Amino acid sequence: MEKRILLIHGPNLNMLGIREPEIYGRTTMEQINQEMIELGKRLGAEVECYQSNSEGALIDKIQSAYGAKDGIIINPGAYTHYSYAIHDAIKAVALPAVEVHLSDIQSREEFRRISVIRPACCDQVAGLGKDSYLVALEKLITDYVS
C-alpha cells in the first residue's frame, strides 16, 4: 500500500530561489516539490505539497492530515521559533512528522536556534539545502511510517 505524505512549506518558502539565495539557495519551492514527488514515487509514497504564509491555514492543513495521511514533513519557516499552535496541531494529529530546514538553524542568529516545533516531531533535518527535504522523506518513510 502506498504511503501518503503531506509536505508543508511555511511562510516565505514560496519565495525560494529569490529570497536570500546565499542562505537558502537558488532552488525554487516548485523544484523541491517536484523532486519530493519523484522521490516519493520511488519510495512507494504519494507526496502532497502545500504552502501557506498563514499560521491558521498551516494548522488547518495539519489537522486535515488526521486519518488521511501517514506522515508529515514540515518546514515551518519563522513559525519554527514561536508557534506553539503548530506544535500543538502536530501533536494532536499524532502522525510521525519530520521538521525540515534548508539552512543550519544552529549556526544562525540566536533566535533561529530554538525550535518549538521540534519536540512535536520525531526527527529534524537541517543544513543540507534542498537535500534536507529529500533526506527527511527517506527518514520518514524508512524509520517512522509503518
What does this structure look like?
This protein is of the alpha/beta class. The protein has helices at 21-24, 29-42, 55-64, 84-93, 131-144, and strands at 3-9, 45-51, 71-75, 97-101, 123-126. The chain has five helices and five strands, in the order E-H-H-E-H-E-H-E-E-H. Strands 2-1-3-4-5 form a five-stranded parallel β-sheet, sandwiched between helices. The mean pLDDT is 93. The radius of gyration is 14 Å and the shape is globular. It has one domain: Rossmann fold, CATH 3.40.50.9100.
Task: Summarize the topology.
Blueprint: E1 3-9, H1 21-24, H2 29-42, E2 45-51, H3 55-64, E3 71-75, H4 84-93, E4 97-101, E5 123-126, H5 131-144
Parallel strand pairs: 1-2, 1-3, 3-4, 4-5
Helix pairs in contact: 2-5, 3-4
Shape annotation? globular
Give me the CATH superfamily.
Answer: Dehydroquinase, class II
Question: What's the CATH architecture name?
Answer: 3-Layer(aba) Sandwich
Tell me roughly what share of residues is in helical segments: 25-40%
Mind summarizing the main beta sheet?
5 strands, parallel
Strand order of the largest sheet: 2-1-3-4-5
Radius of gyration: 14 Å
Question: What's the mean pLDDT score?
Answer: 93
- Report strand %: 15-25%
Q: Tally the beta strands.
A: 5
Number of helices: 5
Write the element-wise H/E pattern from the N-terminal end onward.
EHHEHEHEEH
| CATH topology descriptor | Rossmann fold
Poorly predicted runs are none
The quaternary structure here is: single chain
CATH C-level class: Alpha Beta
Report, as a whole number of angstroms, the end-to-end distance.
11 Å
The chain-level structural class is alpha/beta
